Amino acid sequence: MGNFAANEGLSVFVILVWLGINAYLFVEFYRRFLVERWFYTRVLLGQALPWARAPAACLNFNCMLILLPVCRNLPSFLRGTIQCCSRTAARQLDRNLTFHKLVAYMIAFHTAVHIVAHLFNFEFFMDAQLNRNSSWLPFVLSEIGTDDNAAFLNPIRTNKTNPTIVMFTTIAGLTGVAITLALILIITSSMEVIRRSYFEVFWYTHHLFVIFFIGLVFHGAGRIVRGQTAASLKTNDPQVCAKQFDNWGKNGSNCAVPEFAGNPPGTWKWVVAPMFLYVCERIIRIYRSHQKVVITKVVMHPSKTLELQMKKKGFHMEVGQYVFIQCPSVSRLEWHPFTLTSAPEEDYFSAHIRIVGDWTQELYEACGGDKTEPQDAWKMPKVAIDGPFGTASEDVFRYEVVMLVGAGIGVTPFASILKSVWYKRIQNNQDVFTKKIYFYWLCPETQAFEWFADLLQSLEGQMAEKGVTDFLSYNIYLTRWKETEAAHFRVHHEAENDPITGLKQKTLYGKPNWDNEFTNIASKHPGTKVGVFLCGPPQLGKSLEKQCLSHSEADVKFIFNKENF
Fold first, then answer.
1. How far apart are CA 335 and CA 332, in angstroms?
2. Which residue intervals define the domain FAD-binding FR-type in the entry (predicted)?
3. For the chain, which residues score pLDDT lower than 50?
4. Which domain range does residue 127 map to?
5. Per the domain annotation, does 420 fall within a domain?
6. Which residues sit opposite 406 in a β-bridge?
């Protein structure tokens, strides 16, 4: 229970507060449309009226939130501001994309409810015009305002039309269609299968959010949903006059013809602040992207991993941070996130880029990766950098005991951490709060070890020379192998150095028994908080998070942190 509270307590609280606000807004605005002002509107529309307006209020609230988690600079700023006060609160910022998705799902849900309710509303509006019976109150209400549209209740002013025409000839209808189409495209293109295989589709369709927000702001400008005015309520009390509609406005009648007006548009009040923040965010990104970046070195690793070493004036980073990289010669619109693999102590910053798609392949070729001869520096493509931005790994040196778990290319943030450890503890003899690091690297193929093995060999040699071999324990796992490779491993298993990595520490085969690993660490470090940092697939994240929650031996708390960008 203690581990659950430490790992998930604040997250659960935030989600419950968010759900509570949604529930409150829905109930509050549902009740607001049950008062006398909306009595005659409900005569026309029934319960579809509050069912349309309540989700609209929730939409305003969630649309206010949806942009905030994807303002890259805002979470980085908040992380730096609050992590000195609350490490638990700072860790919630690493779940910004998860919250962004939850808010998006809520927007989709309330949009669906809002649309269905309004489809009924338009049918009711149309029926009131088609059933031309002067003894039927909905028809009488629909005829109000024929001479002066300022007082009408039914936005469909004639029976010689249909809801489809009204939908495409009114502000509410046109903006509603635009908003819905934009939302459908954004959500469908966000599915993981599309995002992984066709990132450009995901990237471009997500920018339809501009159309979505413009339509959202102007959606209520037509004031289609109208209620009785305050002045009219004094001359026409619905509770009394609804049954006397035949005598409305006649001499001797106490009931005047009711007048109606729509509420002024209010969505802009909800979204203007986050939209302003997002515009400022984009301005900062544009400014930073125009600062000159120099590629000082390009390394082509055998595992088809491209290493770019770069310099940029005024660039400062922390361990585990990431940047967005754009290469104009490849695409002027695409920006891709990459973890920084250099240490803050180095005079350059670097990123390791695995060649797995069209964009990375074209960058690989632009940097001369497909050529055998060395490339001149002036032939290197221009690149733009946005960042750096913070991640969970920034907190690694705030824990006395640390577990680093990387899968495949997911080891990149830990390259920065291990390099920084080497500079701080081994080269400069600095005293750091972290006393023990357990490093786990899981790879499905032997080639993936090549680019990172040099760093581990250097660390291994330096630690042995300085006599601090107990500071870092590392376990490398090969999760898949061929029969020919297995025979080679058996022959060289007794060699001093590992046949795959060249390290003295032997490579392990298969997958770690996480239950045993967590139990062993808990027994060795009683009474401590162990920071568990993962950069890898969701399935591995679920497994590690489960272990963090279930292990509490010797009063140990495992705090789970996952890279999320």
1. 8
2. 282-395
3. 148-149, 492, 554, 565
4. 8-170+222-283
5. yes
6. 441, 535
